[in-house]
Design brief:
The protein has 478 residues and is an alpha/beta fold. The chain folds into three domains: 161 residues, Serine Threonine Protein Phosphatase 5, Tetratricopeptide repeat (Alpha Horseshoe), CATH 1.25.40; 147 residues, Rossmann fold (3-Layer(aba) Sandwich), CATH 3.40.50; 110 residues, no CATH class. The chain is built from 20 helices and eleven strands.
Length: 478
Amino acid sequence: MVNKKILISLVIVILLSLFFFIADYREKIANAEITRQQLSLLETFDVFTNTDERLVELLANGNNQAWLHLAKYHADTNANTAYQLGEYFLNLQQVVAAQLWYQEAIRQQHNGARLALSNIYFDRQQYADIKPLLLPILTDEKALALLYELALYQGDLGFIHAYKSKLAQGSNALLFNELDFFSVFNQKVEQTTNKQNIEQIIAQNSTCSVDVQLFATNLAGLRHGQQLISSFEHHKLAKYICLQTPIYIAENTVNCQHLATEKISCNASVWMSRTDINTRYLGVIVEQGKANVDNGIMYLDQQDNLDVLVHELSHFIGFVDEYPLPKQHQKCQEFQQTPFAHNLVVIADFYQGERDMLRAGILSQVPWRSLIKDSTPILSKHQQGWKLATPIEYKNEIGLFTTASCHINGVTQAFKPLYHRTKLEYFELAFPEKYLNIMTLAPKQYLMPSYHFNMSRDLAVEGKLDKASEVLQATMFN
């Protein structure tokens, strides 16, 4: 009987000791003071609560410091906790720490961590690190979607065509339809350019004065291009310029050579291989670079907004920049022999002779002459004779006002129709209604050459003179 009492007492002592032990260690957890060894002991003796439950409780109580302390110990053997740590640090924008914990979760076969780390690599343009992470979980629909986005960046047409049937299933069906809309799966083109082809192309053209076929080198660019089209539909220039649904083209195909801070510049000879273009002009959207128009090709980057788009499109239809042009710009080297733009003339700024005769001769060089009122002066008395420029008192009229276009050159002076600054000088400003009135006087008089000019030029640079000549001869655009 005595032995039984001793045994019962011993059990009570052990249970009380265990109770106080567990309570003490739980307090250490709450105070973020527990060590790895102590946690191991607690997990052994506390059979009522496991570490996963403790972590949930700490978060529920808002004890983030204790949760973080405990999670770091637990993550060594628990993939989900390692993943949660990755999410925690990513939310704090501590990307390096997030990567380390995602990698720990991946070591423990956590598929969600593979996706999360791949998204980080994608944002950081570490494209080469993504495929090894996601190929082992190709059956995961999110992994497949990200691999397709990667394939578009890398121009991996083999992957794009190999898994398109799989992409069309399940939750990725919408993505499949979107890529199909952007002609991603229709990249098989033949190298052929002939007169009959061009005539058929012209017959298929829309009723717009100018058509522009957009291309983009990745999914973000394709989506951005479609958004620009939607926004542009409400712009006053949409009556004259039609933008066609963006088509995918691989970045390594267009072969752009510019830096991110430079004007976008790509090899135009690659367009020889396309038979799916039925427009006079092309618009190419790339990841980075400064927007510009090079004859028949407009280049944009994925951050350019509607203001930039409208500014660049205006060049196609015959409007020239009203901010200082490069010193070597052709139109600023000498006075014009004939008009070359709707909004700009480069003519002498000092004259001698009879005023009315001078006015008539000057206006013959001005595309908007019919919109200048007889009562609006363009010449003012000067010690050298007459100085060309409409006085500021007539700033609300159409006239001949100096502009900065040729200021860097310093040899010639350019004049524009309006006194006020316009979108041709600052992207953010509105496109003047009066400029549209000027354009309608001769809508196609000052159009830029078609993209075939770019092709011919670059083919000639490559030494392919016969091909260069063939392209120009086959072109039916005037």
